[in-house]
Amino acid sequence: MARASHLLDSSLDSADGFTDPHGAGAGGPSADTVTPGQALDVETTYLKGHGTFLEDGQLLSSVAGTVYRVNKLVSVKAIHARYSGEIGDVVVGRIMEVGSNRWCVDISARQSAILLLSSVNLPTGIHRRSDETDEAKMRSYFREGDVLSCEVQGFYQDGAIALHTRSLKYGKLADGVMVAVPSALVKRLKSHFVVLDHGVSMILGLNGYVWISRTPSAQEQKAQAHLFAGHHNFYDAPGSTPTAAPKAAEAVAGADEPLDPHAVREQIVRVRNCILGLVERKVMLTDQLIAAVSRTARSLPAKQLLDPDVMDTVILETREQLQQHDE
Amino acid sequence: MPLSTAERLFAAEGIAASLRIDGRDPLDARTVELETGVILQASGSCRARVHRGSQVLVGAKVAIETLDGASLGAGTSTGLGAALGQGGGRIVCQVVCDPSVAATGGGRCGAGSGRPVDDLTGECGQRLSELLNSAASGIDLASLVVIPHRVGWTVYVDVLVLDLGGNLFDVVLLATKGALCNLRMPRATVLSVDGKQDYDISSHETERLRGAEAIPLAVTCYRVGRRFVIDPTLEEEDCSDLSLAIAVNAAGQVCYMSKSGNGASHGSLIKTMMAFATRRVPELLRVADHCILQQGTRTRAIQGFKV
């Protein structure tokens, strides 16, 4: 465990310093991870927040997690806390239930989030009210088990989260793999839609669900926009049919030469293993850190990244590279 | 909750291309960590943890059971028929899932194995009980008899699933083997009092369960598309329509087989699976036995390997 904690501290620091340009803003984690009962470093005047308690005039943490400070308020967010949500957050979720005019979506929050039929773009693309025919066809838009990206729209009285997908960038996800990480380890970024190297893209949901897939080609992106304009069913995401698979070999956005689909798949697996490896070492995830680690890992077969020792080496190597980059 | 069609397709395509979603080849297993003697109150215990996979805790407890009318009344319990046949002694297995795991179906992203958790644990307990109470288990069940047809030892094997990450039965059997090898039961001696047989249980002398080292291990082959994989993740398990658990002993003999899933298969695939299992398990047993028998209460890792 000694080795892991060493990595933990150092990686947290480097991850934090590295993402400064993005501006975590007030209330960002201040690089310190605490365990239950650990004294918190506070100034003379402070406000006691969640996850803390007072003993013998000292402020102690009651959970294992990261310390957040907003002005004088000191709170600790547990690493395995459920996702609480903020308006505007990009999240990845899975449909759990189809209701009469709503979908219940699992986003690892305390309750299922709700996606109303009126908060999705209807197939014709024109802004219109949803009617009974739409209600009857709800399962053809999203069915149980489907994975989608969406945005937090607001909260209900009982604390349930309301979602919406009223933008071209949100919708059903296909041709990839989902990974669940603790939401406390996903850092708030400028954009949570990340394009990585070698034909891999990722949606880093703030709820801790990460979707890794191949980057759609320029044509596919155009085609999707076209579909959205209302000629076909927009909800048949690209790649959800077997016929779409050979398209992976075609041009990928930004690159003219076709990428080998097998190589893209292996890179997807590498990114997945890197994310899990970082999370096991309790490192805060950012787009640049994941990109850097998976770049270092590229020389290795994806399978080898399952070995904790190999993963340690990769992370240490990445850290050195990042430090050199900073200097 | 099942996976989406797109995810299932992605996983199945990966298996067809020999690149699974975690990068392994179809016939690669994950690393397992074994720890014996983890529960002080139990007569024998073991914990098995698969890297990013299932985690189970097995506790074994022994109790004297008198075969009288009362126990015959409760004859629905597994193994009792066999116990009566051989004059006493049986192994009772129960597999339960930790409530926090059961609530999510074990899934880490809202998707479970596609099967209810009770279904998985029930099937697992059934298989374990059938295997351990049969002659093929290698356990000397006759040594559990204290007074023939009257008194015998009952070994309770309680399995708690702490984390569900696919391939449950193989892990449960491995941990059960660990727990039974770790088992120390009090020595029972038979006395003759006034011409009637009675028994005495020693308070300090213990003995091992005879034949526990010979318990076979299982490899479950899951068919996905035209190929089969071993040690699947929960997602891959959901892609499979047929699985065959094959328990093999150190001599390479198949001791037990059990199929699950709705799929039907050609005999040749079953034969391939069996041939694979008989090759792989003796190797696995060698590593596992080394870990179980050599360790006291310390953790040792069994490296996953390819055959």
Automatic annotation (TrEMBL), chain A:
Sequence ranges assigned to domain K Homology in this UniProt record: 176-215
One GO-annotated biological process of the protein: poly(A)-dependent snoRNA 3'-end processing
InterPro entries assigned to the protein according to its UniProt record, in alphabetical order: Exosome_cplx_N_dom, Exosome_RNA_bind1/RRP40/RRP4, KH_dom_type_1, KH_dom_type_1_sf, NA-bd_OB-fold, S1_RRP4
Principal cellular location given in the protein's record: nucleus
Gene Ontology terms for molecular function: RNA binding
Chain ranges of the RRP4 S1 domain: 82-153
Feature: compositional bias, Low complexity: 1-16
Compartment(s) where it occurs, according to its Swiss-Prot or TrEMBL record: Nucleus
Domain Exosome complex component N-terminal: 34-70
Swiss-Prot/TrEMBL keywords: Exosome, Nucleus, RNA-binding, rRNA processing
Pfam families: ECR1_N, KH_6, S1_RRP4
Region (Disordered) location: 1-35
Family in the record: Belongs to the RRP4 family.
Protein name: Uncharacterized protein
Annotated source species: Caulochytrium protostelioides
Automatic annotation (TrEMBL), chain B:
Keywords of the record: Cytoplasm, Exosome
Primary location class: cytoplasm
Exoribonuclease phosphorolytic domain mapped to chain residues: 29-186, 215-279
Signal peptide: none
GO molecular function: mRNA 3'-UTR AU-rich region binding
UniProt-listed InterPro entries: ExoRNase_PH_dom1 (IPR001247), ExoRNase_PH_dom2 (IPR015847), ExoRNase_PH_dom2_sf (IPR036345), Exosome_comp_Rrp42_subfam (IPR050590), PNPase/RNase_PH_dom_sf (IPR027408), Ribosomal_Su5_D2-typ_SF (IPR020568)
Keyword Magnesium: no
Keyword Nuclease in record: no
One Pfam family, short name: RNase_PH
Cell location: Cytoplasm; Nucleus, Nucleolus
Biological process terms in GO annotation: exonucleolytic trimming to generate mature 3'-end of 5.8S rRNA from tricistronic rRNA transcript (SSU-rRNA, 5.8S rRNA, LSU-rRNA); nuclear mRNA surveillance; nuclear polyadenylation-dependent rRNA catabolic process; rRNA catabolic process; TRAMP-dependent tRNA surveillance pathway; U1 snRNA 3'-end processing; U4 snRNA 3'-end processing; U5 snRNA 3'-end processing
GO terms for cellular component: cytoplasmic exosome (RNase complex); nuclear exosome (RNase complex); nucleolus
Family affiliation: Belongs to the RNase PH family.
Protein name, as recorded: Ribosomal RNA-processing protein 42
Lineage: Eukaryota, Fungi, Fungi incertae sedis, Chytridiomycota, Chytridiomycota incertae sedis
